[in-house]
Amino acid sequence: MRISNGHAVQYLLQHEYSHIWLKAHTKFKDRIVCKDSKYYALDLWNLYDGLCFDAKGFLWAIQVKTNAWAKAKPIIDFQKDHKISCIVLNVKKIGSRWKVFERLYE
Length: 106
Fold this sequence. Notes:
This protein has two helices and seven strands, in the order H-E-E-E-E-E-H-E-E. The protein has helices spanning 2-14, 72-81, and strands at 18-22, 30-33, 38-41, 50-53, 59-66, 85-94, 97-105.
């Protein structure tokens, strides 16, 4: 995971994203409080691995996956209720090289 996160960060920097923050994965969960409920999550809202800003200053949620794409439905469902853009990065080792592919959900 650390290797793929490192490649993801380098990719974001090369594509003019900045202030990249990836949430550390630990055994401790964060408490998320909503108006009518609360829940515990390892990732941001049980969905994202971090946050960053693009060159225009807009906030993007980040999801990093290795060798597979994240499921689109949870991202799209979350975006119906929340005005947040998401960049999903798929980090794959192809031969001896690492490649990063992206999908944007705006």
